Every structure is written in C-alpha cells, then in structure tokens.
Amino acid sequence: MNAPTPRIAIIGAGPGGLTCARILQRQGIPVTVHDLDASRTSRNQGGTLDMHPGTGQHALRAAGLWDAFTALSRPEGEQMRLVSRDGRVLIDAVPAQDGRGKPEIDRGQLRDLLLDSLEPGTVRWGHQLTHAEPLGEGTHRLHFADGSTAEADLVVGADGAWSKVRRLVSDATPVYTGVTFVETGLDDADHRHPERAALTGNGTMMALDNNQGIIAQRNSGGHIRVYIGMRTDEDWYQRRNLDLNDNQAVREALLKEFTGWGDDLLGFITDTDTDTDTGYTNRPLHALPVPHTWPHTQGVTLLGDAAHLMSPFSGMGANLAMRDGADLAAALIEHPSTDDAITAYEDILFPRSSEAAEGAAEGINSAFAPDSATQALAHMTRDQ
C-alpha cells in the first residue's frame, strides 16, 4: 500500500520557494505556496541579480527554465566599475560574453518567470502566516492573518529575513551588520540622467571609501538603482530628527554625510527621481549568526534568507535560495519519506550556507572599512 502523498506548504513566494515548487510540480508532486503579498504585482521586487553557474543557473536548469531565462537575461550587466570618491574610473571590468559568465536579470522578471511556470492556483496570495501550530508527528496547522488555516505535513520556511517558520526550529534572529543602505533610483537614465548613466555603464558602478559607498546598478527599462551606503548606527536618522518621508531633508542629510566626494558621484544623490514614487528608502542590512544551524525537526525546514540571511556583499543571496529550493525538491523526489528528505537536504545546506555567510560577512566588513578604497582596488585588481 502506497504511503499518502505529503501535504507540502511553502511559506513565501520568493525565488527559492518558487523554484522548489516548480521542480516538485514537474515531478507531479502537489505543493501550495502561501505569500503575504496581496498579489504578484502589489510590491516592487527590487534590483537586479547575477545568476551564478553552480547555484542560480543550476536551479534554473533543474526547473526547466534555462532557455526562458536566457531570453530575458542581460549578459552585458556583468560589467563592474570601481570608481574613486572623486569620480575617476579605476577599474572597468567587462567580462567576455562567452556564455559562461553570470548574466543579470531583474528580480521582478525572475519572479514572473517562476510564477508563470507554476500550475494556476499554486500561490495563495494574501496569506500572511501568523504562526504554525504543531499537531504532532510533523504535521502543523498554519494560521494566517485573514483568519484562514491550512494543515501541512511539511512546512518549508521560505519567508525571508523575519521568518515566522524559523521560530519552529531556531531562536536565532537577524542582527544589524552596522551598515545601512539608502536606496533611490534614476528613471529613463540614459535620456534624463546621461552623465550618471555613462558613469554607471552597463552593469554596476561601485565607489567605496572610509566606511561609505555609492553603488549604482543598471536595471532593465533604462532604470538605474542607487544604493548610498554608510557604516552608521541603525537609528542614524532618528538621532538627526530626520523624517524619512521628507525627500529634500534626506537628500540634504546624505550630502552632509558625503562631504568631500566628487560631484559626479554626488549626482547619484542630487539627481534622483524623488518627484516620482522612487524617493529614498532606508534599508539597514541584517544578517543571521554564522553558522546558523538547527536540530532536525520533523515536518519543518528552511531555505533562503530564512535559513541563512547574509549581507548582499556575497552576491549569493538569491542564488543560494534557488539552489536550496532545487536541492530540497530533489531530496523530496529521491527519498521515500519527508523526514529522510529533510535530513539529506540539511546535510548539504548547513556547510554550504555557513561558508557563504562567512564570505558575506568578510565582504561587507572590507567594503565598509576605513581603508575600503584600498581593499576594493586590491581585490578587483587580483580578479583582472
């Protein structure tokens, strides 16, 4: 007599959770994804991602989406420029377009690609998990903010930095890294902001110096996403009595922070499209302790930021989440029980994520250090 098909609930419709769902469905395994967003279009999905061969690209191939990805991706987006604080281009790294690199794709495009690959009704929108109630033998009752409930034999926490599912297996909480990004952007940059577009190039422009940084990242559709980074207290704006909704006040405060930087770089602060919905968004960067592991827990596991939140200076966040999703799906397909699958998956997950998180911590500490300009130049020169 065949064992009953387990009820699999993935919490979070990010790249990792959607990758897992897609691969399971390709093998005829039913799965439901619950997401707190009201719809797929209710929230901007953020900037651009480079897909790495051993992680994100591997996951896309396993999901049968490689060709669709390549039609959307931007190989030219791999270009990386290092700029001094006075605006001089120090290194302009343009990788060979030989199909073996790490092509870029907008986060929104990647999410749409994954969503469109799923069976209709797979994602339950507007399902914000409040808590998961253990019922015994690995089964949980999921309670959502709208009052609805669902039961699952396997709960996959793909619900990001402030994961509710994580509480079932770990007491760990994200800690402030000491670095905050203020995000803004330039719309129709090549026409409205040609000087900033020229300095950015086709990929990413990075200027780092003395615990500060200005990073500009080319997205599709002529948009440039800008991150103004500072090593500072998490409440930096409160200590200045700064209203984050007052664009002019935020702009003036940032210009004071970056006194002495060149006009070409300060233009990424002064020229931003604050008259549109871009404005300025305060983004303190958090990370989970390293290593982050948990005891085997029947009926529950984690992937992506829920499992190993790290700074973006690893370049691995979404890539690892997608590889997590692919590996978890493969384990569920291969092993006869969900319990065996969880064990096999976590045996792979823990060492890989710990190594990546250590690298991310080193990366952000070197990027926002007193000698960050020297460190960045030495690092990029080695890679040439």
How is the main sheet built?
Answer: 7 strands, mixed
Could you report the average pLDDT, rounded to the nearest whole number? 93
The H-and-E topology, N to C, reads as: EHEEHHEEEHEEEEEEHHEEEHHHEEHHHH
Indicate the proportion of strand residues: 15-25%
Shape: globular
Structural class per helix/strand content? alpha/beta
- Tell me, what is the CATH class of the largest domain? Alpha Beta
- How many helices does DSSP assign? 13
Number of domains: 2
- The CATH topology of the largest domain: FAD/NAD(P)-binding domain
Q: CATH H level of the largest domain: which superfamily? A: FAD/NAD(P)-binding domain
* Spatial arrangement of strands, main beta sheet: 5-4-13-14-15-12-16
- Can you count the beta strands? 17
pLDDT below 50 for ≥5 consecutive residues: which ranges?
none
Radius of gyration: 21 Å
Q: State the helicity in percent bands.
A: 25-40%
End-to-end CA span:
60 Å
